[in-house]
Design goal:
- The complex is a heterodimer.
- By secondary structure, chain A is an all-alpha fold.
- The longest helix of chain A has 31 residues.
- Chain A has a single domain, classed as Helix Hairpins (Orthogonal Bundle).
- Chain B is an all-alpha fold.
- Among the domains of chain B are: 73 residues, NADH-ubiquinone/plastoquinone oxidoreductase chain 6, subunit NuoJ (Four Helix Bundle (Hemerythrin (Met), subunit A)), CATH 1.20.120; 38 residues.
- Chain B is built from seven helices and no strands.
- In chain B, helix 1 runs antiparallel to helix 2 and helix 2 runs antiparallel to helix 3.
- The N and C termini of chain B lie far apart (74 Å).
- Classes of the chains: A mainly alpha, B mainly alpha.
- Chains A and B meet through helix 1, helix 2 and helix 3 of A and helix 1, helix 2, helix 3, helix 4 and helix 5 of B.
Chain lengths: 100, 178
């Protein structure tokens, strides 16, 4: 059986890659994809720990996270579409109308 | 080096490589396809972790829903708008990587400091549909219904945000019918 620590290390690495992606990429769609990477790494952590402690709560939590992530991606993509229709770009650095 | 650990390492390398591919690819559609590979490897991990229902849900929701949504939006917006021009400042990518490394090192530190628990050797009841369904519909019925309401609200919200404005020429231009 694979030790739980291996899964935790892998999920930490994927989370860090997602964080680097959010911090360095400036296109809104790539940002959303990197946020999905982070959410999935947390899902992997929860399922691995749910198996270790023989508790089904982790898997139920992952189920709810999947539903929330789907809703968030739908609304985020709708915002990206509406914004690109208005300003013809998807660079998040250009969305600065409220900046002082 | 048992077979399961070898399998884990192989799938883990694919998972990490596809995650790096999402972050570093210049074409948006390649990023979406790398993300799809990442989701499939995660579904494989869920199967090895006795969470079979979640593996199927992962493939259906993420690989079969979210990635398709993202691909549709990429094709709708068009790749000429998804430019990867120069960053805000020239040192932004390096600052991002540095912050990521700081996060990783803090995670490793926490991992080393945490008290190590012995791995359980008994197989749990499993995450098959019967077990998860029993838990969802008895103990977790309220979050289940709230997730359904949330999805409805997100559906209506996305529809409202992404439709054409009322007074655009798209709606008023289609009058070439007899």
């Amino acid at each position: 059986m694979v030790p739980t620590g291996y899964y935790l290390i892998l999920s930490g690495l994927v989370f860090t890659i997602g964080v680097i992606g959010v911090l360095t990429r400036r296109s809104a769609l790539i940002l959303l994809m990197c946020v999905e990477l982070m959410l999935n790494s947390v899902n992997l952590t929860l399922v691995a720990l749910s198996r270790q402690w023989d508790n089904l709560n982790g898997q139920i939590f992952v189920f709810i996270i999947m539903a929330v992530a789907a809703a968030e991606v739908a609304v985020g993509l709708a915002i990206v579409i509406a914004n690109s229709r208005h300003s013809n770009t998807t660079n998040v650095d250009d969305v600065k109308l409220l900046k002082w | 080096m048992t077979a399961s650990i070898l399998f884990f390492i192989v799938i883990g390398v694919v998972c990490l490589a596809s995650a790096i591919g999402v972050v570093t690819s210049r074409v948006a559609i390649h990023s979406a396809l790398y993300l799809l590979v990442n989701f499939v490897t995660l579904a494989i991990f869920f199967v090895t972790l006795e969470a079979q229902f979640l593996a199927a849900a992962q493939v259906i929701i993420y690989a079969g829903g979210i990635v398709i949504l993202i691909l549709f939006v990429i094709m709708l917006i068009g790749s000429e708008k998804i430019e990867t021009r120069a960053e805000h400042r020239s040192w932004t990518p390096y600052a991002g990587i540095l912050l990521g490394v700081a996060l990783l090192s803090s995670m490793i530190y926490a991992f080393e400091k945490a008290p190590q628990a012995s791995d359980t050797t008994t197989l749990i009841n499993g995450g098959g549909p019967q077990t998860v369904g029993l838990a969802l519909f008895t103990a977790y019925i309220l979050p289940f219904e709230m997730a359904a309401v949330l999805l409805l609200v997100a559906l209506i919200g996305a529809l409202l945000l992404a439709r054409y404005p009322r007074n655009s020429t798209i709606e008023s231009g289609n009058t070439n019918q007899p």
